[in-house]
Amino acid sequence: MQEYKLFINGEWTGSSSGEMFEDINPATLELIGKLHKGNKEDVKNAVDAAQDSFDAWSSKPAPQRAQIVFRAARMLEVRKEELSRLMTMEMGKVLKEARGDVQEAIDMAFYAAGEGRRLTGETTPSELPDKFCMTLRRPIGVVGLITPWNFPIAIPAWKIMPALVAGNTLVFKPASDTPILSIELVKILKEAGLPNGVLNLVTGEGKTVGSEIVHNRKIRAVSFTGSLETGKWILAEAARDMKKVSLELGGKNPIIVMDDADINLAIDGIVWGAFGTTGQRCTAASRVIVHEKILPDLLERLIGRTKKLKVGNGLHEDIDIGPVINDSQIRKIAKYVDIGKNEGAKLVLGGNIIKPLPGYFFEPTIFTDVSPDMRIAQEEIFGPVVSLIRVQDIDEAIHIANSVEYGLSSSIYTGNMRYAFKAIEKIDTGITYINASTIGAEIHLPFGGIKSTGNGTREGGTTAIEEFTELKTVYFDYSGKLQKAQIDIE
Ligand code: UN1
Q: Is the model's pTM score more than 0.85?
């Protein structure tokens, strides 16, 4: 059985606790690796290594830093198929989606590498003569990264690649359900020429490793993707040291289907949005808000289509839906199905754990007659469960779309431009799709949400660099005399 160590100051290092934890394939329950369980001491060592390497790394010209990321992108391309298979075994998502996940990391690496030759600031005229004004970007310092299991390589890449190009040094804690993909990513970056100490990886529990990352005073920023509960805790704790925090948290993403929509196209989007990645995306479509005129027809066709989906081990190319990540997640999904039934929603398909299979498999599940205030229509389930809500018109649809705590993604199916633009203007989410599902974000556009989904930051796009830099404003006075802004103006 392969054993995986921590990566501190360029060395694979055993954890100081000597303890280990196991990585299980959720489709077969087979053990796929043993990992060192890091603790606070290990994080401190990682932080010290990151701090010691900061000066040299941040002084290296950005295009040269980016060159290392570019080389890593090319290595990821070469290893795409192998990494995708490993991801399906470790995380469970079907092979086609795992390839997409690796591709997203490749895209982000190439994109971030390009930023090495931009990292742009602004120049603007001064209000005074012989004075030059500009802004420039500086790295933040030692940055802590905490990533989830649902995108085992894409989300680490969203954070690591731009953070490195921007000149930061990193302490990285991957999710304990999917650490191996992160370890492979770190190996690639090392091989691509990343100097020792610039990227350090500590596997282990949130309550020790994650907590030390959040509390260590030498860490100046924390980037976290995960649950709302943990996100709130991080924000509150990190505030004590005035750390910069960026959060990507949950979603309760709606698809609105209007009466003029192309129903088959909408069903394609619902099935993909609700059941793709077994519903384990923060962008998953967990609510479908349907115009009453087309609801019966849509429901019948949706049930028909969903029944055809094959659940099983995602390594087999004919499988549509892989397993749920672990035991506690599958129990949580089953609990929400009970909650929905007790609240009076009508379960029209699925609702059960699939028993004869050894792994954590759950039937794709559809509820109808869901009212917007039910818990299944409000809380993030993170599983293959979708709730249908009936509405009479566009205004009611948008009102219900907005009636949740989260604000990540949303979608509307319609041919009517008035409806489409209303949705763009009025839906309170960071992302809105027209005639496409709630998932499918591309890395060169900002990704993130409003309300309880985040704290105002965005990942990807030009905002990827903003997340990992601080601005400096520079006034360069070459007049040779004292000039006072505001006061010297006549
Ligand atoms: C997430 O669910 O955590 O748009 C990220 C998408 C993916 C990213 C999802 N490209 O669904």
A: yes
